[in-house]
Design brief:
This protein is of the alpha+beta class. It has one domain (3-138): Sufe protein. Chain: A (Alpha-Beta Complex). The protein has 6 helices and 3 strands, in the order ααββαβααα. It has helices spanning 3-15, 20-33, 75-88, 93-98, 103-106, 115-138; strands at 55-62, 65-72, 91-92. The chain has a 3-stranded antiparallel beta sheet with strand order 1-2-3. Helix 2 crosses helix 3 and helix 3 (75-88) packs parallel to helix 6 (115-138). The longest helix is centred in the last third of the chain and has 24 residues, at 115-138. The chain is globular and about 45 Å long. The two termini are 22 Å apart.
């Protein structure tokens, strides 16, 4: 599935929820399902700067595709990174680097986060795109 197809799927899923409490519960559930990052990557090098909570992100390359794993010490943040991983993991580096992550605005995520969480979301996206750029430049 392409990045945009996955984003459209997420937008559709979020449209089924009546209010933001239900959407938060869904985000928390997604975080609980997140495959955990290998403990060796829970270090300073893999910590995303700019997040209030701790978020570790690792990127690996399999064939032409980037695979992300992550963990966080905050349950909502874990759900947010799970959404980003769902959209970007398994995609080509160039596609990740240039991706327009419109689903964030479409589902109203940014406006329903505190300022610090919103800044953290931006940092997560930026870090994932940086991995995309780094792997793309190695090709």
């Amino acid at each position: 599935m392409s990045i945009n197809q996955i984003q459209d799927e997420i937008i559709e899923e979020f449209s089924f929820f009546g209010d933001w409490m239900e959407k938060y519960e869904y985000i928390i559930d997604l975080g609980k399902q997140l495959p955990l990052i290998d403990e060796q990557y829970k270090d300073e090098e893999h910590l995303i700067k700019g997040c209030q909570s701790k978020v570790w992100l690792h990127a690996g390359k399999e064939n032409d595709h980037i695979t992300f794993t992550s963990d966080s010490d905050a349950i909502i943040t874990k759900g947010i990174i799970a959404l980003l991983i769902r959209v970007l993991s398994g995609q080509k580096a160039e596609e990740i680097a240039k991706a327009d992550l419109y689903f964030i605005d479409e589902i109203g995520l940014k406006e329903h986060l505190s300022q610090t969480r919103s800044n953290g979301l931006v940092s997560m996206v930026k870090q994932m795109k940086m991995y995309g750029l780094a792997f793309a430049s190695k090709n």
